Amino acid sequence: MESKTKLTSDSSEWHWWLLVAVIAVLVVGAASITIWRDFHELRHKVPRIRRPPGGVMQKYSDALHVSTQFFDVQKSGKLENNRIKWRGDSGLEDGKDDNLDLSKGLYDAGDHMKFGFPMAFTATVLAWSILEYGQHMEAVNELKHAQESLKWITDYLINAHPSDNVLYIQVGDPDIDHKCWERPETSTEKRPTIQVNSSYPGSDVACETAAAMAAASLVFKNQDSGYSKLLLDHAQKLFEFANSYPGVYSKSIPSIQDYYKSSGFVDELLWAASWLYHATGDGYYIDYVTVMHGNAFANWGNPTWFSWDNKLPGIQVIFLVSDPEFIFFFWGGGVGGGGLGKPSF
């Protein structure tokens, strides 16, 4: 009797563990299928979130309209379609001492300086915004305005790159300029120029300019193919210049260290290569980022905020947007990620 009871108990216990095992297998299987399905859908969909333009709230529309006026307020040169009544033509002689037309572009902050490093970063981020949210801008009649503002900067950047290994990065003397309280339309101060070149390299500012041009080439690709190709040609040549003659521009030219001093140039090299990959689809650029400089790319860095001086977070976002599978690159610790899909822009 005791043996029979024990046998029955063992049998019940065995059935219990079998039931637990079956349930566990089903749960794991269901979870695996769900994860695979969701990841597969994410992998093959355009990863950017796109909501119907019809849902744009009026207050956000008004905020966007006011925000884009900032570019109009900061413009230099002979103004076109001027939306700001109290602004007029200015900086028309910029660059003439070097036989260049550097009249366009944007003034920096509240002064009359043209600093190439932050101006190019502004163009890159504006281009990125148009690529990501252009349909929403169009829904509130701001897309054309944003494109015009972008072209105003890139026209300047093209003229600031007169030869392969020369890039003009500054117009004006900040020490003189910051002592004057006047309108740019009436300014009479001398406005000297500063350039980086093979003798005084500036990989950081050259690559930020390359990134701006590569990103902008995508914006204008379907509207003006000739202009888009011109931008891309300048971007590729600037990248080669920066890569061949490495250096921090604020170290090459110590006199400019008080204004937008750069902390390094590796992030800008990767930033430019990232945008060139998206603009060309050329595998060389993705290898440059993820293989040749993979450890620098995978390092989240400190600080980790995105700014004119630190592009690393932006680089990582660009590639994760291109292909969500690339998150495994970070989990894997760096070199050897690869496997990115085609550019998504």
Automatic annotation (TrEMBL):
It comes from the Eukaryota. Residues 60-319 form the Glycoside hydrolase family domain. GO terms for biological process: cellulose catabolic process. It holds the Pfam family Glyco_hydro_9. The keyword Magnesium does not apply. GO terms for molecular function: cellulase activity. Gene3D superfamilies: 1.50.10.10. It catalyses: Endohydrolysis of (1->4)-beta-D-glucosidic linkages in cellulose, lichenin and cereal beta-D-glucans. Its EC number is 3.2.1.4. The chain crosses the membrane at residues 14-36. InterPro entries: 6-hairpin_glycosidase_sf, 6hp_glycosidase-like_sf, Glyco_hydro_9. SUPFAM superfamilies: Six-hairpin glycosidases. Keywords: Carbohydrate metabolism, Cellulose degradation, Glycosidase, Hydrolase, Membrane, Polysaccharide degradation, Transmembrane, Transmembrane helix. Belongs to the glycosyl hydrolase 9 (cellulase E) family. This is cellulase. It comes from Helianthus annuus (Common sunflower). The lineage of its organism: Eukaryota, Viridiplantae, Streptophyta, Embryophyta, Tracheophyta.
